[in-house]
Specification:
The complex is a heterodimer of chains A (119) and B (111). Helix content of chain A is 0%, strand content 52%. In chain A, the strands form 2 sheets. In chain A, strands 2, 4, 5, 6, 9, 10 and 11 form a 7-stranded mixed β-sheet that branches. Chain A starts with a strand and ends with a strand. Helix content of chain B is 0%, strand content 57%. In chain B, the strands form 2 sheets. In chain B, strands 2, 4, 5, 9, 10 and 11 form a 6-stranded mixed β-sheet that branches. In chain B, a hairpin with a 4-residue loop joins strand 7 and strand 8. Classes of the chains: A mainly beta (119), B mainly beta (111). The interface between A and B is medium-sized, with 27 and 24 residues.
Chain lengths: 119, 111
């Protein structure tokens, strides 16, 4: 079990540039979550997918943020254009759930995170 | 309670002492309550997932209880050790699979 794999580990970019964060969930997990960690807000849920379908993106800060899950083994979180206030650690996590109203008792498994710095 | 709230924010405990902290969560739309341990420079790791009112779970010196009717959970650490120093997060798992975290309790064990 390789765990949840995120890349890159660190990203430094200039304001206005496009940033793409990547996540490979644990094989067999059908739910994937993107969180953002800041000192002020803690771990904020940005978006989550179930069976590759976005279920709730109400946590996405604004239209500059978008996320996709083209297949069960890959997801991206894109910020375009990036701003200094987007600087944070972004975590991806996966688990096994049953979908709305049918969750299993499965904890989240987190990747190592991507530390994003926008200058 | 509309959000997930944890208290205290920070806690200093003498090595060998026992301690506990609280997680409060909405009592509606509940499916499960998670506890995670988060060490500096690492990722959060799951301790417990609890679903039933009155649930108690234990892992070594760490245990947790759940009250879904009043919307709270306690995490207990017995005989604190230096390796227990970490941030402890709880997360509210709604019926629609949305999982919302509290801001955590940062525990420091003093030698």
């Amino acid at each position: 079990d390789a765990g949840v794999i995120q890349s890159p580990r660190h990203e430094v970019t200039e304001m206005g540039q496009e940033v793409t964060l990547r996540c490979k969930p644990i094989s067999g997990h059908n739910s994937l979550f993107w969180y953002r960690q800041t000192m002020m807000r803690g771990l904020e849920l940005l978006i989550y997918f179930n069976n590759n379908v976005p279920i709730d993106d109400s946590g996405m800060p604004e239209d500059r943020f978008s996320a996709k899950m083209p297949n069960a083994s890959f997801s991206t979180l894109k910020i375009q254009p990036s701003e200094p206030r987007d600087s944070a650690v972004y975590f991806c996590a996966s688990s096994t759930t049953g979908g709305a109203g049918n969750s299993y008792n499965s904890p989240l498994h987190f990747g190592n995170g991507t530390r994003l710095t926008v200058t | 309670i509309l959000n997930v709230e944890q208290s205290p924010q920070s806690l200093h405990v003498q090595e060998g002492d026992s301690t506990n902290f609280t997680c409060s969560f909405p009592s509606s739309n509940f499916y499960a309550l998670h506890w995670y341990r988060w060490e500096t420079a690492k990722s959060p790791e799951a301790l417990f997932v609890m679903t039933l009112n009155g649930d108690e779970k234990k892992k070594g010196r760490i245990s947790a209880t759940l009250n879904t009717k009043e919307g709270y959970s306690y995490l207990y650490i017995k005989g604190s050790q230096p390796e227990d120093s970490a941030t402890y997060l709880c997360a509210f798992n709604r019926r629609d699979d949305k999982i919302i975290f509290g801001k955590g309790t940062r525990l420091h064990i003093l030698p």
